[in-house]
């Protein structure tokens, strides 16, 4: 049985994915010893992408930072849940071995307000593509956007949520 945020949403959820704030993976990676690659490998990969990708990468990063800045704060772990008529950002708490539990409804938008949904493959740093989370960006008609990271292990749920949001 998966995570059910229906009681917070007030209607049956069709899909849900666990998400983290942008940069959470990199911060956790930076705390690891350098023997496993850690911050050094990520920094080298960032510099290589900056040189190779040039302006296109710089533009993408600025757009990602703008979207991340407009994402409501949901703490260290959250959920993006989809119902028949809306998408919601929900904070979650870890409760022992049972996994995350929906805690509080942070924000919601009607599905008709969604203008774009993008689920990336991995953050563009060469050295850590295998383990890095996938960026999920949901843009709305009012100009705001949510940008979060979907941990690699939950990418399948992320794909389902993205399909539901695209209609």
Q: What topology does this entry show?
A:
Blueprint: H1 6-9, E1 13-21, H2 24-30, H3 38-70, E2 78-83, E3 86-94, E4 100-110, E5 114-119, E6 134-140, E7 145-150, H4 155-166
Antiparallel strand pairs: 1-2, 1-7, 2-3, 3-4, 5-6, 6-7
Total number of strands? 7
The rounded distance between the terminal residues' Cα atoms is 25 Å
Structural class: alpha+beta
The radius of gyration is 16 Å
Mean pLDDT: 80
The CATH class, by name, is Mainly Beta
Low-confidence stretches are: 35-45
Major beta-sheet overview: 7 strands, antiparallel
Number of domains: 1
Annotated CATH topology: PH-domain like
The tally of helices reads 4
CATH architecture: Roll
CATH homologous superfamily descriptor = Pleckstrin-homology domain (PH domain)/Phosphotyrosine-binding domain (PTB)
Q: How big a fraction of the residues is strand?
A: 25-35%
Strand order of the largest sheet: 4-3-2-1-7-6-5
Give the overall shape, derived from the CA principal axes: globular
Task: Kindly describe this structure.
By secondary structure, this protein is of the alpha+beta class. The chain has one domain (6-166): PH-domain like (Roll). 34% of the residues lie in helices and 32% in strands. The protein has 4 helices and 7 strands; from the N terminus they run αβααββββββα. Strands 4-3-2-1-7-6-5 form a 7-stranded antiparallel sheet. A hairpin with a 2-residue loop joins strand 2 and strand 3. The longest helix is centred in the first third of the chain and has 33 residues, at 38-70. It is globular, with a radius of gyration of 16 Å. Mean pLDDT is 80; it is low at 35-45.
């Amino acid at each position: 049985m998966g995570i059910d945020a229906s009681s917070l949403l007030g209607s049956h959820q069709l899909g849900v994915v666990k998400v983290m704030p942008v940069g959470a993976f990199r911060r956790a990676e930076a705390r690891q010893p350098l023997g496993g690659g850690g911050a050094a490998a990520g920094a080298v990969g960032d510099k290589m992408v900056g040189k190779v990708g040039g302006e296109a990468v710089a533009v993408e990063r600025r757009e990602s930072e703008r979207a991340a800045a407009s994402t409501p704060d949901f703490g260290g772990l959250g959920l993006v849940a989809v119902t028949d008529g809306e998408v919601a950002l929900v904070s979650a708490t870890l409760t022992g071995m049972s996994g995350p539990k929906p805690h509080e409804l942070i924000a919601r938008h009607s599905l008709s307000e969604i203008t774009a949904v993008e689920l990336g493959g991995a953050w563009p740093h060469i050295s850590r593509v295998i383990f890095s989370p996938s960026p999920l960006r949901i843009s709305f008609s009012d100009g705001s956007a949510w940008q979060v990271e979907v941990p690699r292990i939950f990418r399948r749920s992320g794909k389902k949520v993205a399909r539901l949001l695209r209609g």
